[in-house]
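Reopening this ticket.

The earlier resolution said the output was attached, but the attachment link was broken on my side. Pasting everything inline this time so it's all in one place.
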Amino acid sequence: MPQSAEILHSIIESAESGIITIDSHGVVQTFSPAAERLFGYRSDEMIDHNVSLLMPEPDHSAHDGYLNNYLTSGVARIIGMGREVTGLRKDGTRFPLHLSVGKFAIDGQTMFTGIVHDLTAEVEHRNSLRASEERFQQLVANIDEMFMFRTVAPVKYIYVSPAVQQIYGVTVEQALADPEIFFTVIHPDDAALVRKTMIEADTSSRVELESRIVRPDGELRWVWVRYRPVETAPGEPPLVAVTVSDITARKAAQRGEEAARAEAERANDAKTELLSRMSHELRTPLNAILGFSQLLGMDELNTDQQESVREINRGGRHLLDLINEVLDISRIESGQMALSSEPVFVSNVIDEVLDLMGPLINARKLLVTLPPVGTFTEHVLADRPRLKQVLLNLVSNAIKYNRDEGQVSVSCAVQPDGMFAITVSDTGIGVPQGEINRLFAPFDRMGAENTEVEGTGVGLALSLALVQTMGGRLEVESTLGIGSSFTVLLPLIEGETS
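Inline output:
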């Protein structure tokens, strides 16, 4: 027996849970080391004192009454079972603990044993989980998207977020009780696709679709549904996460954009057709005017008459150029201009342009600088006639808006991004930095209409459209009073040389 008592004493002394024994009056008889650490009292401070010292109100005052009630009635409220209670440390702090109470007798005297365990960490964890769940519920409740988790087969929804009522018009309870309820609101034309997609979602990493639903109130809506598998613990059934977004507004906007685009295309086609018809109707009498003016120029005319005929020819050619350029821009905008993409030897095109511009260059006594012969042998991907048209326009502008005895420079350079740059520079009047964008506005000649410089105000707009259609860029740098540089950048064809 002494050995057994020693073993029992060792167990009590080494136990991690506090062990306290009291008599029938609630007076502490033993107070284990673990109890000392838990409550902050030494054993000698508790022995022969009432155990209610370890309890906050109202349990502190009511404890003796609990004991008397048990001793007189025999009704056990906590004996033989565990419960969560609040303990009171020596320093006055409260903490949650688990209490298990047992009863025994020594020499006919009733005794009670209490085993206590600190629940602070467990309660904090539980409160943290509860707070996280509450935050999650608040977050989900305020998100317009709907979230669901369902089993694979048979399908059963184990969680449905509150947004189900906002989107589908059914309650969470209805959705959890009847997995088929979602098919009752799917548009009949989309039902087969939705069922097929749901089956695919059971074995795929991610599946999504757009479908229509008809809510119980008759409202038609579009939804975007995404399915993805959810990892579960071994032995648990596989789950699929379902996210549903209401895209009705987006679909309506798309339909509006499509209708507006179709209307714009119809208007553009009508404009192109009108311009085409007008150009044909204008060319017929214009060709007659130019033909008769040329015949008049062959007659013997005095000086004034000859000048008048030249003005007729000049005005007629100007009008013909304008008609052609406006029609070209319209065709590009409507996508009706077909351009051929082929390797183009840039050096030859530049030579042809300068040959055509030679008389104008000589008339203005301009100095032209070019890359040394044979320096550039590259080809670009472009429509040759249209590239020539663009360069003619740029060189023509460099001549017209230059100063007498100024300079026109044509240079080339291979760019790091795989583009080939053709730059036409002049020493002309230049353009203020804030007005450079006006250069490409059709019919905006920026005051040149009040000078003797001829032009339509459409050439640069047409050049920009042509370069972009050929897959390139047209860039400009200009300084007022110093000059301008226009750079055509087109895709370089690697390995193509001449």
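Reporter confirms the inline version is readable. The longest strand covers residues 483-497. The domain at 2-123 is CATH 3.30.450.20 (Beta-Lactamase).
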